[in-house]
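Quick sanity check, Inositol polyphosphate 1-phosphatase:
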Amino acid sequence: MAALLKSLLAASEKAAHIAQLCRQEEALFSLLIEEKRGAEKNKKFLQDFKTLADVLIQEVIKHDVGKEFPELEDHILGEESNKFENGLGETVVVQVCPTQEDTAALLQKILDRNQTAADLLAAAIHQEVVLSDPAVDEMAVEISTENIAVWIDPIDSTNQYIRGRGHVMPVDGIYPSGLRSALVLIGVYDRHSGEPVLGIINEPFFQEDPQTHRWQSKYHWGISYKGTNLSSLSQPPLRTSPRVVLSSNEKPALQKALAPLYGEQLYFASGAGYKMLCVALGLADAYVLSEGSTFKWDSCGPHAILRALGGGIVDFLLSLQAWRAGQHKELPGLTYNKPAEGSVGAERWANQGGLVAYISQEHLKAVMATLVAAKDAF
């Protein structure tokens, strides 16, 4: 497991560098947007974009991890199609080529023959990342790679990545929007049970260097497997005054239903992965979402980290039903191995019942009891 975690962390660091490069080079960034259409479009947004950065990051992680662990190559899944259409109407299959020169030549076709941009990206794709992390090196957990699969969200909150501002003031530590909500998410799950076992969240835009004005990344990881729980994070203490983080467009009915528990401690932020990170970091005790607007690639990695810290993520609607029926233990958690029946496109992998991400069992129980007490709100 140490070798797999180290490989995934190195891939996430390379992904973070690509995300930074694409966002910092304005001339490059303006070339990297293509509107999603049809079944790929997220119903939550009037405009939803697939960026070349998304596709590149996804394919780099598949390539680098698949090269080291060939048995995983066909089980590394992502949000994006690896087909990209350039300004000339040509469809190009994005992939990592054997050499940096070959990759640059392929990228030129996408970037309207822009050699400078292609060379910058190819260099980032083929760079060697040397990861030094004693905590990872010393880990002794064994997980068979024959029974697992990987979900990738190359850039969570792509809309914020495209439009986000680097300097957004946080409210009590939670950033409402901006580049901080754009994360690289990697989740590993058991192919048989669907349970998350390993998660990585990389913050490409964690901190800006005041000297170079370049962003520095930061990663977090967690493992929850057969009773073993390890994480780069420490379990945050319970708050005396609990708080919840919500989507900015969450239903007013949910906000009203949660008021008896949280009072005015309702916070709003962009990016599903970022809101889950806020819970893992102890900036919020829960993230509640009443709609099916997140996907398996959004939640798998954060879910594993939360499990490692004593929390988790449950299905919002199924858990409400279970609680009303008197089942207050082992609420239905999200799983990651089966598509939703009767759905097509990206919706096959949506968390259709909504979700509750929580940092402790005590707080999950408080959330469920408060929601059920709201009677017919849901």
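Posting the structure with no commentary besides this: The CA atoms of residues 177 and 270 lie 5 Å apart.
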